[in-house]
Structure formats: structure tokens, C-alpha cells
Write a structure and sequence with these properties.
Order of helices and strands: EEEEHEHHEHHEH
Oligomer: single chain
Low-confidence stretches: none
CATH topology of the largest domain: Arc Repressor Mutant, subunit A
Largest sheet: 5 strands, mixed
CATH superfamily of the largest domain: Winged helix-like DNA-binding domain superfamily/Winged helix DNA-binding domain
Number of strands: 7
Shape: globular
CATH class of the largest domain: Mainly Alpha
Mean pLDDT: 90
Helix content: 25-40%
Radius of gyration: 16 Å
Number of helices: 6
């Protein structure tokens, strides 16, 4: 935290992360990574504004140990040397969204489940559309693996950053 006009204010650090799928925008709080989105994603400004308001935060472009660790872990992931991430996370969303994202974290590397199966794991067996909407609002791509959720008929389904990126990630994890 830092003082800003007599008011304690939090700081959100931001940086750019390099991946084989393109540049990503990352944001972190003291507690952990709160945003990782592809730069071509059109909602970055709105999501960053939401984070600023949620944490009463000032946004500062910077590099820090968490971002260095994130870059290292993502490099290892894309090089087939990492299946699980150890980055601390700060999930920012409604209680239902956070529950959906925590369920995503339980999907093993290289596996997929359907939106219906995810809803069942969350004890909301008929909420597969709400689960799909929550997954679409996931602000931590790749690390919170919404790309591992497909339609019940085994079709890929959507992906907020584009189905070509989802296909790439699923193929990467199959090898």
C-alpha cells in the first residue's frame, strides 16, 4: 500500500509476458496474479478498471519477482516441462465465478471436461450455461485452465481469446 492524498491505496503491478501465442498482459496484487490476458483481447481495459476499483488501487507498470516467476513457468509450460503452475493467484469475481474457476484448477493437465461435468462438480448440475459464462469471464488465461472445458458432444466450444488459441493449448497438452 501507499499513501495517496491522505488515503491508503493498494498497488496493482502490470507487465507484458511473452508466449508462443503472442504477448499477454499480466497484473498482480500483493496476494498474487489477478489477471493474465492475451493483448489482442478486447476487454483488458475494462477488466483492469474493475481490478482498480475492487482493490482501490493504483496501477503501476513494473517488473517484479512474481512476473519473473510467471514468465519462467509459462516458458516451461510451452516447452512441455511444466504441467502445474505454482504462481499465487488472487481470483477476482463473484462467489459463483470464483467457485467455477477453482473447479477449473482441478482439471488435470491434458484432460478435458464438459461444461455440464464442471457444473456437476460444483454441485449445480443444471447450471452449465452459467458455468460457461463464468469461464468466459476468467481473467487468468492458461493458469486457470478454462481451455480444458469443452462441449458435451466433444466439440471445442468457445474461448474468450479465440478458438485457435484454445486448440493450440489443448494440442500442446496432448503431446
Amino acid at each position: 500500500m501507499r499513501a495517496h492524498k491522505g488515503i491508503q491505496q493498494n498497488i496493482v503491478h502490470t507487465t507484458t509476458i511473452h508466449t508462443p501465442l503472442g504477448e499477454m498482459f499480466a497484473a498482480s496484487t500483493q496476494k498474487g496474479l489477478c489477471m493474465l490476458c492475451f493483448l489482442d483481447k478486447y476487454h483488458i481495459d475494462a477488466k483492469l478498471e474493475h481490478i482498480k476499483q475492487m482493490f482501490n488501487a493504483t496501477v503501476i507498470p513494473s517488473n517484479n519477482a512474481l512476473f519473473e516467476r510467471l514468465q519462467k513457468e509459462l516458458n516451461e509450460y510451452f516447452e512441455h516441462k511444466r504441467e502445474c503452475f505454482d504462481i499465487p493467484l488472487q481470483l477476482v469475481g463473484t462467489s459463483f465465478q470464483v467457485r467455477a474457476w477453482r473447479a477449473l484448477l482441478e482439471i488435470p493437465y491434458g484432460s478435458t471436461i464438459s461444461y455440464k461435468q464442471q457444473a456437476q462438480k460444483m454441485q449445480h448440475p443444471t447450471a452449465h450455461r452459467a458455468v460457461a459464462n463464468a469461464n468466459a469471464q476468467n481473467m487468468i488465461a492458461i493458469i486457470v485452465p478454462c481451455h480444458r472445458v469443452i462441449r458435451e458432444n466433444s466439440e471445442m466450444g468457445g474461448y474468450a481469446s479465440g478458438v485457435e488459441k484454445k486448440a493450440f493449448l489443448l494440442n500442446l497438452e496432448k503431446k
